[in-house]
Amino acid sequence: MSYLRIRDLSVVLRGTRHRLLRDVSLDVSATEVMGLVGESGAGKSMIGKAVLGILPRSARIVSGSIELDGVDLLTLPPRKRRTLVGRKAALIPQDPLTALNPARRIEPQITDRLVDILGWDRARARTRAAEILHDVHIPQPDRVLRAYPHELSGGMRQRVLIASAFAAEPRLIVADEPTTALDVTVQKQILKLIFEMQARHETALLFVTHDLGVVSKICQRLTVLYGGLVMEEAEVGAFFDAPQHPYSRALLAATPRHTDPDADLTPVPDAVIAEARRAVAEADLRWHT
Amino acid sequence: MSDLYRVEDLRLSLPDMTRKPLFGAAPRIEILKGMSFTIPKGQVLGIVGGSGSGKSTLGRALVRLLEPTGGRVTFDGTDLTHLPEPALRPLRHRFQMIFQDPMSSLNPRMSVARIIAAPLSLHGRPNPREGALEALERVGLPRSFGARFPHELSGGQRQRIGIARAIALRPDFILADEIVSGLDVSSQAQVLSILRNLVREMNLTLAFISHDLSVIRRLCDRVLVLHQGEIVEDAACEALFAAPQAAYTRELLEAIPEPDPKKPWFERAS
Q: How many CB atoms lie within 10 A of CB B75?
């Protein structure tokens, strides 16, 4: 039984017929880690944003459904949808620097959602914030709660955002390239932490990334996108043994393998790109008629 | 093989503006804490380290965008360490740089041809436009791209413009500072293979700065690993991957997620 169920989701650039997502269907079960992979512009972040209802104004959902825990979000009135999504889902954003308000202390940035969405009082929210900061291995949580974002290192800020995402005990976490701004050594710690939190809180996790290496380490299944169209959906084990779609194969061949002295990096061949574009064009032809 | 660069006990400190008192000088932080190495002609040297390790500062000291505060940097027999700008100017065409972010290092109001021709006209080369179009061809882009503007190009194409600008002057040395870190894997593979070919064809010496060891194995002959302003390992590329000596190098290597679910990376918590 899938916790998140997306069917034939299409998103267009507002005011045009140009689709950014093309009939995307995907399922994530209650405790599953699903990787969303693709190059920039493939629409991988767009899916996460559509689920959370935070699409940019320039994008508009035109068809399809997004069911979260059996409720179709797109048929709900905006206010109801916001409350529901706020209770059941949360985001770990990409850039820890811009995601935190530089002029506010950490505490209200974690507790606001607990007060607004769950209706807790400030004292209870504060206790929870300290507790969750402790869970993400932040030493001296009380000091960090009083700190401003600029007083914390990049890795520390990302920990705060992870804590904040898990604070309200959501059932689905969308992680949007949470480690691209970080060093490899810090990246490993942060991924380990996200994975540990996901397992402990038994949430579903939608992990958006361009790095197949990361997917192979933390996901159970993955969906490969090109041009807003799903190219392949597979179990991680099977995928890395033998990717089925030519585009997936080419993407994997372009990913560095540092332990293999003979592995060369091959750019995605033009023929494969042409084929992927053709698939996109065919999907559009069906959609427009 | 003679050395193009000789670096002896290179030190560099910068004022720490976050701790500057209202009056008086800011305390200085030591960024490079005495580095010595050489770069032989024709070698591709990888410079690797985490953020704050001093790799970009080192690069900038090599091409004298920053002035060292101690030690010596010698380029093909000339001491660059404290050379004043007027004396540096005639040498600058021999060492060029490719920047990390092509969006901010390419002028959005200039056409590609003008961007690449700019250093050629600055150094008084004849027929800069023709030189620019030739450089475009060398990075595998058609001459017609000369009429385009940076916003019309993809990330990988923009980075190739950055490369074209750096090679247009036919320099001896190129510094590439994290030039693939913002790119998709496919463009990354393409940029790396273009760079590798150019090194061979144009007999270039290259310093390639990266925070990611995984991209340099196929490109570099030798690798310097930096940590907190010091060289912790200086080894031939294959030796480094086969048997890393420094603990920090091993940490860097182990942190790379290789695309293979069968190789353990960290213990799954569940």
A: 24
